[in-house]
């Protein structure tokens, strides 16, 4: 478990495609603070980006809404909590493995973003509480990149 | 970070060069260029991605779109993608129909 020591950082943005850059910058800052390696940083960014994109495009269906991103970082890694008030949606149930047997011309790409998100993180959980979808994503610092030599 | 997209023809190859980040915000620019590239009718479409530091599933959707737009005999190549980007392409199984190469 990651028990990051820092106070949580919070970002609250409109659920618009234009806000993805701000969300990415927020996540990258936390990853930097935690000292995550390149690969772990890429993975947490990809996961948050995919889930946020899904909330914007499918959760709120392009309508008005907001996304709250809370993050904590520490030596153990980064934990991000995404919250929205769109209709209930559990990404684990919406996760489709890629249909690699289907020719690309007939391939359905929807759901692949969630698959990428959930396979990029070390821990994931979903809850519906007080009318909010809450996704908690953790990427650990240890074991995600080549380890430093042991003393 | 924005995406820069350039389109050129080299012999019988249409070259799309991407630089920047390919996500839900920037993928529409790539999409438009694919439409143009498909109209060129060359036998190969080469997508140079060495300058792409990040790609989300929106980029995969663009690659599938490219396959759907070009004629059956056209080869699509993705060249120079960094490791996490090529891993994303492989995760989606697109490496079965798109040639991935380092250079």
Task: Please tag this protein with its features.
heterodimer; A: 151 residues; alpha+beta; 30% helix; disordered C terminus; B: 103 residues; alpha/beta; five-stranded mixed sheet; 3 helices; 35% helix; globular
Helicity level of chain A:
25-40%
Number of strands of chain B: 5
Quickly count the helices of chain B: 3
Unreliable runs of chain A:
144-151
> H/E series of chain A, N to C?
EHHEEHEE
Distance between the termini of chain A: 24 Å
The best one-word shape of chain A is: globular
Major sheet characteristics of chain A: 5 strands, antiparallel
Classify the helix fraction of chain B into a percent range: 25-40%
Could you tell me the radius of gyration of chain B in angstroms? 12 Å
Task: List unreliable stretches of 5+ residues of chain B.
Answer: none
* Helix-and-strand structural type of chain A: alpha+beta
Structural class of chain B: alpha/beta
Greatest interface (CB-CB under 8 A), with counts per chain: A-B, 28 and 22 residues
Overall form of chain B: globular
Pfam family, one (chain B): STAS
Family (chain B): Belongs to the anti-sigma-factor antagonist family.
InterPro entries (chain B): Anti-sigma_ant, STAS_dom, STAS_dom_sf
Domain STAS (chain B): 3-103
């Amino acid at each position: 478990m990651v028990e990051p020591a820092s106070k949580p950082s919070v970002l609250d943005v409109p659920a618009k495609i234009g806000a993805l850059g701000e969300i990415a910058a927020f996540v990258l800052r936390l990853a930097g603070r935690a000292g995550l390696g390149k690969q772990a940083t890429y993975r947490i960014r990809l996961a948050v980006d995919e889930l946020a994109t899904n909330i914007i495009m499918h959760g709120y269906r392009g309508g008005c809404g907001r996304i709250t991103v809370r993050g904590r970082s520490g030596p153990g890694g980064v934990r991000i909590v995404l919250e929205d008030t769109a209709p209930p949606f559990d990404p684990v149930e919406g996760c489709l493995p890629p249909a690699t047997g289907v020719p690309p011309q007939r391939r359905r790409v929807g759901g692949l973003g969630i698959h990428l998100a959930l396979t990029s993180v070390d821990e994931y959980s979903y809850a519906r509480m007080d009318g909010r979808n809450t996704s908690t994503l953790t990427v650990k610092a240890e074991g995600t990149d080549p380890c430093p030599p042991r003393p | 970070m924005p995406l820069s997209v350039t389109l050129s023809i080299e012999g019988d190859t249409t070259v799309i060069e991407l630089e920047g980040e390919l996500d839900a915000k920037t993928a529409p620019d790539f999409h438009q260029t694919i439409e143009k590239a498909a109209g060129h009718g060359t036998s190969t479409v080469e997508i140079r991605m060495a300058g792409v530091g990040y790609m989300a599933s929106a980029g995969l959707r663009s690659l599938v779109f490219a396959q759907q737009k070009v004629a059956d005999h056209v080869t699509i190549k993705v060249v120079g993608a960094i490791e996490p980007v090529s891993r994303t392409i492989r995760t989606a199984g697109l490496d079965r129909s798109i040639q991935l190469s380092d250079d």
